[in-house]
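Homework help board

Subject: predicted structure for assignment chain

Our instructor gave us this sequence and asked us to write out the predicted structure in token form, then describe one feature. I got the tokens but I'm not sure how to describe them. Can anyone check?
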Amino acid sequence: MNRIPVFFDPRLVSDVPVESPSAGKPRDVVREWLARYPIELHGYAPATIVDLCRAHSPAFVQDILTMQVPNGMETDDVRFLDSLYWTTGSLLNAARHALSRGIAVSPTSGFHHAGYDYCWGFCTFNGLMIAAQSLLTKSNVQKIGILDFDQHRGDGTEDIVRRLNLDAQITHITGLANYPREKQAFLATLPQLLEALSACDLIIYQAGADQHENDPLGGFLSSAEMRYRDARVFDFAKIQGIPLVWNLAGGYQTAESDGTISIQPVLDLHNATMEECVRIFQDNQ
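My token output:
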């Protein structure tokens, strides 16, 4: 049985107490995936400082790593900084793998609010743009699509594209930018949004769980509509023959059981994304 490649290393998980659940989420997601779905874990090398500087000002990278400026999680715990090499490395290596295999997964979050020389909103380094820049400069890739269906606008991605003059090489699409909380408009326009990626050599897809209608930080789609969203993205990539790598992005719902608070509603949404990925891509692996 062929399996979906997932690029995971325990060192991308940070247990440092921070406001966002995203830092610790990859471990929980991968644990559920291993128990439920035909996935295959891949090891990888961490990102390097050279990689980080492909999308960020070298001075900014140095200031973050030496804690001269606040990182996206606003923590001064060095364990969180160490995890950044592994989160970025996961997406970078998964993207490289997708080019040859057609599909790969990076169970990571915390990218799209990081700009060329700033960060905020639980994001420190923009792994989306680091991966894109690496492939554009070190492979035969000419054009990359970043399909960002996190609920919150990828201002950092837009900033890097503008600062590095990458408009001709990066197609950046966000569902929120044009259709905030207008689900029918978003769903009706989904085919056109995807069609804009037809000329791309790779799609980087942020399958954000915070587009769900019950998410406390936004959202407007039901669980069924979220699944439909993911299926259309995967179908499009497979039919067009465009390699695709996807990651988790945001998700902030919680549930309480026996006095314990968990992020199970978020995990359920990420599970549904993986189910659609397996259904559409497994035969090709």
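Reply (TA_rk): Your tokens look well-formed. For the description, you could write something like this. The chain has a mean pLDDT of 92. That's the kind of observation they're looking for.
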